[in-house]
Design brief:
With 127 residues, this protein is an all-beta fold. The chain has strands spanning 3-7, 10-12, 18-25, 33-39, 46-51, 58-60, 68-73, 78-83, 92-99, 116-117, 121-125. Strands 2, 4, 5, 6, 9, 10 and 11 form a seven-stranded mixed β-sheet that branches. Strand 7 and strand 8 form a beta hairpin. The chain is globular, with a radius of gyration of 13 Å.
């Protein structure tokens, strides 16, 4: 059974950095689209970033462009979300998700496309 587990969240001051980890098991994650999403208190879950099969294509939500970077380590079956220059509005529970239906050279942050989801990790940005 495919599983995703996020870690790396925490409390950080504005302007600080965090690196989130998404560990995949039960499937070869590099073959599939991986997305990062977040849900802030009282708000709907939104897309942060997505990367296509083998990381060929990567997209970022406008508010995180230039600050967040997605990368993959196929040897470790791990996906990373490096978050720099964090802002209070980045406070949310962050989730990784996988679209394992087929290989794709493109990706979308449409949440309905994703089959498997992790449990989430809390990121809090506050002074």
């Amino acid at each position: 059974q495919p599983q995703l587990v996020e870690s790396g969240g925490g409390l950080v001051q504005p302007g600080g950095s965090l690196r989130l980890f998404c560990g995949a098991s039960g499937f070869t994650f590099d073959r599939y689209v991986i997305g990062w999403f977040r849900q802030a208190p009282g708000k709907e879950r939104e897309g942060v970033s997505c990367s296509s099969s083998y990381g060929i294509t990567i997209h970022y939500e406008d508010s995180v462009k230039g600050r967040f970077t997605v990368s993959r380590d196929s040897a470790k079956n791990m996906v990373y979300l490096q978050m720099n220059n964090l802002k209070p509005e980045d406070t949310a529970v962050y989730y990784c998700a996988a679209d394992t239906r087929e290989l794709k050279s493109y990706c979308s942050m449409n949440q309905t496309m994703y089959v498997y989801w992790g449990q989430g990790t809390q990121v809090s940005v506050s002074s």
